[in-house]
Backbone:
C-alpha cells in the first residue's frame, strides 16, 4: 500500500483520524519522531505508528495516536492489526506500545482492549474528553442549537466591526505571537513557531487545514487553526490578544471555522479538549473554576454539541525496564497535538 493509498483509507474509514495521516507523521518526524504505516497483508485496516527515541539510543516508545484505523467490531482484523503493530514496534526496539484510539469509553471497549493484552495507562497524551458539534443541519439550525449568549456574542462581534479572513503561511508569525500571548495569559504550554509553521506548510496546500484570523480595523485580534478530514473537522489551536476582547473576536472566529468545515463537506466539528469530568460535574463547576481547561470549557460549551469521552491511552510493555522508560518519557512531554 502506498502512502497516498493509506491516506485515502484513513479519509474514508469510519475510524479514520487526522492524526493517522502520513502528513501528520511528516510533521512529527520534523520534531524528533520516526514513523511507519503498518498494514497487515490482505487487510484494509492498519495504523500510522510514531516512534519516540529514548535517551542514549536505548530504544523507542511506539505510539499510535487516535488509532489504529480498524473496525473494532471485527475482532479478527483488529487482532491482526495489533499483532502487526507490535511486531513492527519490536523491530524498532520499542520498550512499550501505546495506543490512543478513537473509541468511545464504554465497558465493552475496555474489555476489547484488555483482551488484546493492553492495559489502561495512568496518563493520556491527547485530551480524552471533547465536545462534538453536529454541523450537518443548515446554519440557522446550528446557531439555534447554541447557547443564547454564544449566539449573541457571534452577532455582537459583527456589529462591533470584527471581520474574519483566511490566512496564509505569511501570517503564521502573527498567529504564533497570539499563541505566545494566550499561553502566558492562560498558563498553558505551546509549541514552537517552527511547529505551527510546518503544520500549516503541510496541510494548507492539501485543503485539510485553515488558518483563520479575526481583525478589527486591520488589527489582528485572534487566530484559529482548524483541520478537516472526511466528515470531521477539528479545532486544534486558538489564540487571542489582550486587545478589544469585549468585541468577541474569538466567537466570530469559531463560527467562521464551523462554516469553513461545513462548506468542505464536514458534518461533525470536534472542539477538542475539555476537563476530564462527567457532564454533570462540568456543568456544576464551570462557573467557579478557571484552572486547567475549565475556562476553555466555559467557552466551548456555548457552541452546543455532545460531550464525548474516549478510552484514553492504553499500553503494552515490551521491555522489562519499561516502567523506568515511562518515567523518563513523562518528564519530556510536549503539548498535545
Residues:
Amino acid at each position: 500500500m502506498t502512502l497516498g493509498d493509506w491516506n485515502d483509507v484513513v479519509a474514508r474509514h469510519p475510524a479514520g483520524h487526522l492524526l493517522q495521516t502520513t502528513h501528520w507523521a511528516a510533521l512529527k518526524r520534523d520534531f524528533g519522531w520516526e514513523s511507519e504505516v503498518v498494514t497487515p497483508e490482505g487487510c484494509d485496516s492498519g495504523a500510522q505508528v510514531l516512534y519516540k527515541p529514548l535517551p542514549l539510543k536505548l530504544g523507542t516508545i511506539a505510539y499510535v495516536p487516535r488509532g489504529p484505523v480498524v473496525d473494532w467490531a471485527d475482532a479478527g482484523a483488529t487482532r491482526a492489526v495489533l499483532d502487526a503493530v507490535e511486531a513492527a514496534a519490536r523491530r524498532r526496539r520499542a520498550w512499550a506500545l501505546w495506543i490512543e484510539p478513537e473509541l468511545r469509553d464504554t465497558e465493552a471497549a475496555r474489555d476489547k482492549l484488555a483482551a488484546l493484552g493492553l492495559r489502561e495507562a495512568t496518563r493520556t497524551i491527547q485530551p480524552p474528553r471533547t465536545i462534538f458539534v453536529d454541523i450537518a443541519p443548515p446554519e440557522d439550525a446550528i446557531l439555534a442549537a447554541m447557547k443564547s449568549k454564544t449566539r449573541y456574542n457571534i452577532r455582537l462581534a459583527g456589529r462591533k466591526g470584527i471581520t474574519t479572513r483566511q490566512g496564509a503561511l505569511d501570517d503564521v508569525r502573527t498567529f504564533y505571537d497570539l499563541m505566545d500571548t494566550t499561553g502566558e495569559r492562560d498558563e498553558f504550554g505551546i509549541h514552537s513557531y517552527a511547529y505551527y509553521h510546518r503544520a500549516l506548510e503541510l496541510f494548507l496546500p492539501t485543503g485539510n487545514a485553515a488558518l483563520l484570523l479575526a481583525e478589527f480595523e486591520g488589527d489582528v485580534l485572534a487566530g484559529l487553526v482548524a483541520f478537516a478530514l472526511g466528515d470531521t473537522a477539528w479545532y486544534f489551536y486558538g489564540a487571542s490578544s489582550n486587545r478589544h476582547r469585549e468585541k468577541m473576536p474569538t466567537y466570530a472566529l469559531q463560527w467562521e471555522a464551523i462554516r469553513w468545515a461545513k462548506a468542505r463537506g464536514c458534518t461533525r466539528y470536534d472542539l477538542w479538549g475539555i476537563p476530564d469530568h462527567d457532564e454533570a460535574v462540568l456543568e456544576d463547576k464551570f462557573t467557579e473554576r478557571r484552572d486547567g481547561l475549565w475556562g476553555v470549557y466555559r467557552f466551548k460549551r456555548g457552541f452546543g454539541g455532545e460531550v464525548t469521552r474516549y478510552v484514553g491511552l492504553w499500553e503494552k510493555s515490551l521491555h522489562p525496564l519499561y516502567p523506568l522508560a515511562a518515567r523518563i518519557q513523562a518528564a519530556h512531554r510536549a503539548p498535545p497535538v
Remarks:
- The CA atoms of residues 60 and 310 lie 25 Å apart.
- The domain at 3-125+310-330 is CATH 3.40.630.30 (Aminopeptidase).
- The two ends are 26 Å apart (CA to CA).
